[in-house]
Write a structure and sequence with these properties.
The protein has two domains: about 100 residues, Phosphorylase Kinase, domain 1, CATH 3.30.200.20; about 200 residues, Alpha-Beta Complex (Aminoglycoside 3'-phosphotransferase, Chain: A, domain 2). It contains ten helices and nine strands. A five-stranded antiparallel β-sheet has the order 1-2-3-5-4, with helices on one face. Strands 6-9 form a two-stranded antiparallel sheet. It is globular.
Length: about 325
């Protein structure tokens, strides 16, 4: 979450005239995150999140996200529920951009990760993959491998790019361009952005999952790799094998990995690390000094990318 588009009290009051949410008690920006503009909205009827969709979201794809969140909320996947206005419309216009109001989810992001949290996550992700087979809409991954490699090519010309990052971007551009991507991997709907700050816990149990705007159709293994990157390293960016095994064991208690998935887990972890290194480099490059946007450090994913390149036997026991 973040804020790029600044909304006045008059604008939000006018927009809320379309809803049955009552008078505003609180409307304030949410700084964390980098993708869209987000505000905490509190009215006499409760708390909500007001999101304005920014440059990375294709507005023609917004109905997909609305439908998916409705599906996920109804199927115990703990997504926010989109709120319709008096005419049954979910998407609104503000400052020539699309906006959406969703329910406010209980809980909070973790400040200290423990083994039972990662087990919770593994079970949740597997249930998402199994249950989403019933969701009939589809969306291509607009940050798939070909798009990421295109972004990396562009970034190699950035003058401010530190040499270590440029070296590894070039190395992985060559690797993924010349490597044969795995085929016949089980696939379906994935969340695509299951970072620690997008998963809320309450009393040790997952209570909510937010930011579904990278959800798409891709291999389940790619989602698993994203989770390993995001959850299975410590605060010093050291890989924690025990957390990884806890996650995989919990996942497989619901959905067993195929041998093909096990054989390609390292490849996919490297692909996921490159994706987040590249997008963080891009966010840093495009930083306009907006103090209501909190950009994440690309070096975290440079370290993870190096780790997956240098340690080829870490998943042999999976």
């Amino acid at each position: 979450m973040a804020v790029y588009t600044h909304v006045t009290n008059n604008e939000i009051t006018s927009l809320l005239g379309n809803y049955n949410l009552g008078a505003i008690n609180l409307f304030e920006p949410i700084k964390s995150g980098v993708e869209n503009s987000n505000y905490l909205l509190e009215t006499v009827t409760g708390k909500y999140i007001f999101t304005i969709f920014e440059k990375r979201v294709d507005k023609t794809e917004l109905p997909f996200f609305v439908d998916l969140m409705q599906f996920a909320a109804k199927n115990d996947l703990l997504a926010p529920t989109p709120i319709a206005d008096k005419k049954g419309n979910y998407l609104q216009d503000i400052q020539n951009k699309k906006a959406l109001i969703v329910s406010f989810l209980p809980g909070q992001e973790l400040t200290m990760l423990e083994h039972h949290h990662i087990a919770e996550l593994g079970e949740y992700v597997a249930n998402l993959h199994v249950k989403s087979a019933q969701f009939k809409s589809a969306r291509n991954n607009n940050m798939g491998l070909s798009q990421v490699l295109g972004l990396v090519k562009q970034q190699l010309d950035y003058k401010e790019l530190p040499p270590p990052i440029k070296f590894h971007l070039q190395q992985d551009l060559d690797y993924f361009t010349n490597s044969k991507a795995p085929t016949n991997l089980p696939s379906g709907i994935i969340h695509g952005d299951l970072f620690v700050d997008n998963v809320f816990f309450e009393n040790g149990i997952i209570s909510g999952v937010i930011d579904w705007y990278f959800a798409c159709n891709d291999s389940f293994l790619y989602e698993i790799a994203i989770c390993i990157n995001a959850w299975c390293f410590d605060a010093y960016q050291r890989f924690v094998p025990e957390l990884t095994q806890e996650f995989l064991d919990s996942y497989q208690a619901v959905r067993e990995l195929t041998q093909n998935e096990k054989d390609n887990l390292l490849y996919m972890c490297r692909r996921a690390a490159l994706r987040f290194l590249a997008t963080r480099v891009e966010d840093k490059h495009n930083d306009n000094g907006n103090n209501l946007v909190e950009h994440k450090n690309p070096l975290e994913y440079l370290i993870k990318l190096q780790f997956f390149k240098e340690n080829k036997d870490i998943f042999t026991a999976v």
